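Protein in question reproduced for absentees:

***
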Amino acid sequence: MVGSGFAGLGAAIALARSGERDVGVLERADDVGGTWRENTYPGCACDVPSVLYSFSFAPNRSWTRSFSPQPEIQAYLQKVAREYGVVPYLRTSCTMLDAQWDDSALVWRLRTSRGDLTAQALVAATGPLNEPALPRIRGLDRFQGELFHSAEWNHDYDLTGKRVAVIGTGASAVQFIPHVAREAARLTVFQRTAPWVMPRPDRTLTRVERRAYRSVPALQKLARAGVWASRELSVIGFRNPGIMPLAERIASRHLRRQVPDPELRAKLTPHFRMGCKRVLLSNDYYPALTQRHVDLSTDPIAEVTASSVMSADGTEREVDCIILGTGFHVTDVPLARQVRNAAGVTLEEHWEGSPQAHLGMMVDGYPNLFLMVGPNTGLGHTSILLMIEAQASYIAEAVTTMRRRDLAAVEVRREVLDRYNAALAQKLEGTVWTSGGCSSWYVDATGRVSTLWPTFTLPYMRSAQHFDPSTCHLTARTAQRDVLQSA
């Protein structure tokens, strides 16, 4: 496994449970956690209800809030790694630099920051939210003040009394902007597109609730099932954009109640169908923007100087600090430039700008490679852990099948992948993601929605949790032995 967030840990646990012991988890940092280790900005928390944001086999009965904050999620992942025996498999401070399939030995050859490794199977579990995306703004590299991305928060820098510029108004920004507004002397938020923001039904979980979950685990399972079912209903709106105005009215009422100024409210009103971009949850984002020392700019940024940010309308704002809330490399994940097939072709080159994989996991021409949270497995409505658990089960079953049938390699058939992607394209037609009137990180460089799963989670979980050998080219281990002997 490459990566030790939810995906990497989930795969390692599934493999160990299936009897596999020759497992390694490569982690570039010094601890597990993935995006929940990296993102420590003020206010960082999950947008999925806590009861649904844990592995089904390892429910957390200690969440303190209905939407769990980052430190609790990180602590949960550390606990899971310990309790499910993953720690001995970890190779921390180990960055994978390159991986190439060896077609003669039928193994993956990995070059890492801690030496070379060989693996029969490679699980890419880095996820899409691990590499910060920096905006292409003229002069940004010449700025002499403090500059950092939200995923690389500088906690040593004191924002008190500073003039701060925030670029971006996505999911991370709406969480940290209220905290920055409480400290900064002057805050300017640069917004390219106004997001849809819904009320966040967050509250502290009472001791009675937590005690009940510990005493009667079935209660938490029932709550989890209820949240899952209610979240699934929102898919109906995503697939039928004509009914989304019902939800938009709730968001518009939320905006009117929290922003009395009609001019500011107009700037914060989205002009696309809800769901086309990620729907955000917040109770304190709008109030933060109404404060006297906070300014919302909707003019494009023309240039950054050594000490200021200049808008296209000619306004120059002197700032001490710039915070980038500009998201991540999602459709162009760096790992795709590091994984090569036998001919040396990277995944990035193979995909030609539009990532595709069978069940989001297997790519033709790349045997024994399994992607987690890969193409078209992201979700806009519920917990990604539902997809991750199914993928972990699939990978463990694939490895078990290889061991049981004495196989050296499995590789998805091209016709299987083509049929799968044709079905995906059909399911995406007419959805809010393809007809919602916006541009988003859901869409890749070719204009295709290659990040999201287009319907309910249950069909995916049923399809993905079991490995089907008939979808793959199978290479017997005898062929591997023959090649090695002749060599």
